[in-house]
Amino acid sequence: MHTCPVFDWEAAWHAALYGPSGFFARGEKPSAHFRTSPLVGPELAVALVELLSRVDAALGFPPVVDFVDVGAGGGELAFAVRSLATGSLAARLRVTAVELGPPVELPGVRWTSAVPECVGLLVGHEWLDSIPCPVVTGPSSDPWITRWWPSLADGAQAEVGAPRDAAWAAAVASVRGAALAVDYGHLVSSRRFTLTGYRAGRQVPVVFDGSCDITAHVALDACAAAAGGDRVLVSQRDALAALGLTGTVSGSGWEWLESAARAGRIAELRDPAGLGSFGWLLHGNGIPVSSLLPPLPPWCPDPASFPEL
C-alpha cells in the first residue's frame, strides 16, 4: 500500500527563504517588498536610542554597550541607531546586525549570522515572523497547539510557533540588559492562520520557489512565556508615546514644516489600524522592565489587521 508523503511546511518555508536559491539568501531585502517602521523615517530609531539609554543607565553605564539588530535586513535600523546616538553612549556603543543574507557595508555596523552574547539592548524587529514553522491541520495533538491554539477547528490550519518560542528564548538569554521583539501577531484568544507572501510591495499567495517573502503572525504571548522572566507586552502605539514620540507640532516657518512632517511620520508609526498595532514584547535580563517603560495597557491586537488572500 502506497501513502502520500506528508508535506514538510517548515522545511519548504526555510528553503524558500534561506536555501541556496532562497528569497533572502540571494540578497533580497525587506525594504524592496513591504513598508516597515524603520523605512518611515528616523523616529523608530530615535525611540530605540532612548530605550537603549535607559538600558545603559540601568546597567550602570558599562564600558561597552551593545545594540544588536536581529534579522537586520538591509541594516537600516542598525545604521540609524548608530547615527543618532550621541555623547557618552555613542562613544561606548557597539552596533551589530544579525542577518543570514548577504551583509551591507555600513559605517559603524558589524555583521554576523548568529545572535551574539551582548550587554545592552537586543531588538528583533519583524524577525520572528520570518522564522519558519510547522503547519498542522486540526484536530491536532501537537503540544504547542494544545497549549496555545486550543480552539483550532476540525480542518483548520495553524502555524506551530514552537521554533519562534525557542529562538526568542535563546535571544533573551544571550543579552544582559533588555531584549525587545517588535512584530505583528495574535494572542491565544484570537488565533487565526495567517501564512502569506509578499513580493514587490504586494501581498501574494504563498509559493515555495524563493520568489517571495513568506511570513506569518507571531504568537507573542507564547514567545513571552517561553523566554520567561520580567517582561511586558504592549502596543507600539503606547510604547512610542512612553519613549517621547507623541507627534506634537510647534514653531513657525520651516521649523513648523519640519515639525509637521515629523508628526506625520509618528502618526503613521502609532496608527492603531497599522504599525501602531504591532506588539512590543520587552524582557529585562538583569534589569527591571519598570526602569525602561512605565505601566502601559496590555497589547490587544486587532484581528482585522490579519492578512486576507
From TrEMBL:
<dbReference type="GO" id="GO:0032259">
    <property type="term" value="P:methylation"/>
</dbReference>
<keyword id="KW-0808">Transferase</keyword>
<dbReference type="InterPro" id="IPR003788">
    <property type="entry name" value="NDUFAF7"/>
</dbReference>
<dbReference type="InterPro" id="IPR029063">
    <property type="entry name" value="SAM-dependent_MTases_sf"/>
</dbReference>
<protein>
    <submittedName>
        <fullName>SAM-dependent methyltransferase, MidA family</fullName>
    </submittedName>
</protein>
<dbReference type="InterPro" id="IPR038375">
    <property type="entry name" value="NDUFAF7_sf"/>
</dbReference>
<dbReference type="Pfam" id="PF02636">
    <property type="entry name" value="Methyltransf_28"/>
</dbReference>
<keyword id="KW-0489">Methyltransferase</keyword>
<dbReference type="GO" id="GO:0008168">
    <property type="term" value="F:methyltransferase activity"/>
</dbReference>
